[in-house]
Amino acid sequence: MPDRPTIPLPLPKPTPLTQPFWDAAKQRKLLLPRDSAGRYFFYPRPIAPGSMDDQLDWGEVDPSGTIYSFTIDRRGTAPAFVGQVPYVIAIVELDAGPHLTTNIIGCEVDDVRVGMRVEAVFEDVSDEITLIKFTPTRS
Fold first, then answer.
1. pLDDT (0 to 100) of residue 5
2. What string of DSSP letters covers 38-104?
3. pLDDT at 4
4. Total number of domains constituting the chain
5. How far is residue 127 CA from its own chain's centroid?
6. What is the pLDDT of residue 78?
7. Residue 121 is part of a domain; what is its CATH number?
8. Pick from 34, 25, 105, 40: which is nearest to 72 by CA?
9. Tens digit of each residue's pLDDT (9 = 90 or more) over 28-42
10. Max CA distance (Å), the chain
11. Which domain holds residue 61?
């Protein structure tokens, strides 16, 4: 089979609404939006889900949680990801409450389990973007 051309991985494109999240990630922090009652949510949006509150701010949360759901991609969800397989796409329920879609790294893909405790790791992928991924908790 001939070599496939290398396709660069797509990177997030911060917007004014999401920029605080990406700035915090660059500083190795997990910052999430919250409503005026202090309830965190994710993904960033101008109105809090559930309360319709538009008086929002950002707060730092503990970057740990539990795997809520996951799948193992063994083929590549898009051509740019073919060279990354196999990898885990997971939904992590943060201890602060919100769920984040992320990757699980630092272990064999077949060792990942629902309910596994995980903690954030920060991966610099460009000068502007640091991705937040998760690894099994070391304890």
1. 60
2. --B-SS--SS-TTT-----EEEE--SEEEEEEEEEESS-SSGGGGGG-SEEEEEEEETTS-EEEEEE
3. 56
4. 1
5. 18
6. 87
7. 2.40.50.840
8. 105
9. 999 999 999 999 999
10. 57
11. 19-136
